[in-house]
Design a protein that fits this description.
CATH class of chain B: Mainly Alpha
CATH superfamily of chain B: Cytochrome c oxidase, subunit III, four-helix bundle
CATH architecture of chain B: Up-down Bundle
Radius of gyration of chain B: 20 Å
Helix content of chain A: over 70%
Number of strands of chain A: 0
Radius of gyration of chain A: 17 Å
Number of domains of chain B: 1
Shape of chain A: flat
Helix content of chain B: over 70%
Mean pLDDT of chain B: 95
Number of helices of chain B: 6
Largest interface: A-B, 50 and 54 residues
Oligomer: heterodimer
Largest sheet of chain B: none
Number of helices of chain A: 3
Low-confidence stretches of chain A: 1-5
Order of helices and strands of chain B: HHHHHH
Number of strands of chain B: 0
Number of domains of chain A: 2
Distance between the termini of chain B: 53 Å
Amino acid sequence: MSEPPRPSRGGRYVLTLAALVALTAASWGLAQLHLGELGPAIALGIAAAKASLVALLFMEIDRYGTASRVVAVVTVVFIALLCLGTGADVAMR
Amino acid sequence: MSEAYADRASREHALYLGMWVFLGSETLLFAGLFGLYSAYRAGYGQPFDEALRHNEQWLGSVNTLVLIVSSFFVAWAVHLTRNDRLRGALWSLVAVVALGLTFLGLKAFEYTHHLREGIAPGALYHYDLLPDPAARIFFTLYYFMTGLHALHVVAGLTVMVWLIRRIRRRRIDAHHHTELELGGLYWHLVDIVWIFLWPLLYLTG
């Protein structure tokens, strides 16, 4: 935020970048193993972990107050409902 | 300052909240597309897998790294600005623009390659080696999702260039950089969307 300026430490950004690159490499490496049905679930799980790192450590969601956090949580809940509904529809066909 | 706000802190709070609501709506837009893709994939497993394997994995992977590094540089620019190191922040944003253009260049290369083969969206699709109608559905979704994402990259790059101009003109500093934080949040969302597009469209065949 702008006022008063809060100093921020750069080390965690570098560590986050390293973790994201490592997870990307892991995702690519696992894709080469052709894990069948498990493959997409693992790849999307790693993607969710990477997205969480970006949201928490690059976007610093905790920095923007309760209302912004509520918006983020509601978005995640809506996505979960969408996944649930889509999954149920596909499963019952 | 607008009369709608009692002070600068209130205005900034409204701006940040507005941006988070906007990002939430953008996320739900892409989530809907991911849901549509997943439902089709559940119904057309094998032809979808074959179509997915036709995408060049290395192109998607390099673009993933490009966007992740660009996201780092946006966070780095915000960090440097908070610490009043504006020259470094400016060059970080220049790196973001360079990486964003690299992403778009690789995407254009991939589109060109596909289109030359006859892999086009919708009724224009005429690729003989993947004749299954489900392959056409896959590539129509591929073009729509990656095209929509590319438009977001273009919008993000426009914002980055504007922010570079603001820093050069000393309109942004350690005390006044709300627009940089807002633009950064948008760019991170563009990165997050691609983080999911990559496995869905390139890796999981």
